[in-house]
Design goal:
The chain has 95 residues and is an alpha+beta fold. The protein has a three-stranded antiparallel β-sheet. The protein has a two-stranded antiparallel sheet with strand order 1-5. The relative contact order is 0.20. It has four helices and five strands. The C terminus is likely disordered.
């Protein structure tokens, strides 16, 4: 899975905010803010990083148990997917 090219993050007044671009601006109703871990995961997802790599990155950066990291990453991915921010690598980006 990967972040769609129609979304970027910007730091505004110390907050990281997901910004839709292009035609996505017309369809995206909402606001997504990211914390430090969210920014880390976002950057990894931009590269198409898989779940195991994301878990390793979180475990290296933060003191957290693997089960908690996995659960939190899955919740993050589900929120992004629910907001149509992700694409599956084997599908067309316009899905």
């Amino acid at each position: 899975m990967k972040i769609k090219n129609d979304f970027i993050i910007r730091e505004i007044a110390g907050e990281y905010i997901v910004i839709p671009t292009g035609r996505t601006v017309l369809d995206f109703n909402g606001l997504i803010t990211l914390n430090e871990i969210g920014v880390l995961l976002w950057k990894l997802l931009q590269k198409g990083t898989d779940m195991d790599e994301m878990i390793r990155a979180v475990l290296e950066e933060y003191e957290v148990e693997e089960a908690v990291a996995r659960e939190d990453i899955l919740a993050f991915i589900e929120k992004l997917d629910a907001n149509h921010v992700l694409i599956k690598e084997d599908t067309d980006e316009n899905d």
